[in-house]
Amino acid sequence: MSDYAIPAREYALVFASALIVTFLLTGVVRTLAVKVGAVTPIRDRDVHRTPVPRMGGVAVFAGFSVAVLMAMNLATLGSAFRTSSEIMGVLAAGAVICAVGVLDDRFDLDAVTKLAGQILAAGVMALFGVQVNRVWVPSDEPSGGSLVSLDQTQSTLITILLTVILVNAMNFIDGLDGLLAGVALISGLAVFAFSARQLYLSANDTAASQAPLIAAALVGACLGFLPHNFSPARIFMGDSGAMFIGLAMAGATISATSKLDTSTFGPRTTIAFLAPLIVALAVVFIPILDFLLAVIRRTRKGLHPFSADKEHLHHRMLSIGHTQRQAVLIFYLWAALLAGSAVSLAFVDLSRYLGIYLLVVGGGLVLAVTCSAWPRVRAARLSRRQRQDTRAAESALPTPSIGHPS
Predict the structure, then answer these.
(1) How much is the pTM?
(2) 287 vs 246, more confident
(3) Which residues contribute to the annotated binding site for Mg(2+)?
């Protein structure tokens, strides 16, 4: 067991700083967004009915940046800057992608321009050393496998691809008030838990403290923004926020996976290596599922697969009887179930506790499915009860007598 002590107070300070700065700046950004005309118009497929300012990502990025730069002067977390350029890379890339998002929030950039900005930001992050530079290959060795190094071109391409996927997934999920901020908060907590565990086991402040620092600042910024964004929202993330959150999530995930070695988790390195990647998949699960269902649905109707409609998952949740807040909370539950079950793999010895693990995950799955379908179940029960009451009332009526001729 490691004797290393996680600098919990310093992480708490980073979290609190991001939360407070983001919360205070969001009102200022809202006023600015209204003045510059960065306001979301009302479209047929939208669930809001009044114009709402966007560009909230500026406050999220500012809170994140202030918290991270403040950490540079802390006794323990300061080592994350002295031994690696990853943190500065996430900040530089975040500034690029947030600027692209602000332009889109105001002028509605075309898809090609936004994609170019995303690739540029991902490239900047890779240039600062945030790269998927090794791949874990499982084997029958006592260590459970071995690490295979990637060359510079492979590392850069995989990093850009993963970052662009997460950026667009976050953008795609931003369909209900508070949904993106909450899902990102939950996913950030999962990444922090895993990377802090990795830091504790390795006891290496210089090589393993970057990922938990990024995650702590991101979680604080998302929580600071959520009171302004939860239904009914007073301001939206906009592309400036959605794309930055996706990039920060990619930076934390890549940083965590790139620091894994066999001495940290031993025979469980295979599971540990997959855990942060599964968390990333948990983030994109809902939007990717929604996207695939949308493509299938539109293609079957003879429509263009990327045409707009009102049948996304969040639209369906509303149509079966959930309020917008209930739908968002259910999506939070699904995100917590997926991310939590993934990260717990780094903490739980499945050879000893597989049954308990499956029981807990299975129970969470039953709860999530039940909550998701409850309005439909309740409507079916009410309809059945009404039919029974109707039949009972009809059977209670007196049978009309038939007169006989005299």
Answers:
(1) 0.85
(2) 246
(3) 171, 239
